[in-house]
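Researcher: Please translate sequence to structure tokens.
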Amino acid sequence: MDKALKIETILSQIRKLDHETRLYLMERLVRLVGQQDRKKEKTSSHLLELNNLGAEIWKDVNIDQYVQQERQWD
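Model: Translation complete:
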């Protein structure tokens, strides 16, 4: 069964629930997704960890000249 069909099956079941139960389900899903996001944060790199990455490549480059050259190529 493909994902879209599984999701439609789940949604058809959710439509049968009363409003209060749907809200409870939504709260549970939000918590579940939040837990997954926190797990990813622990294993993924933060953008600030990339600070100065590759700095040695640019150490002898005059940035103003480089930008000027890039703007002039046709």
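Researcher: Any highlights?
Model: The two ends are 52 Å apart (CA to CA).
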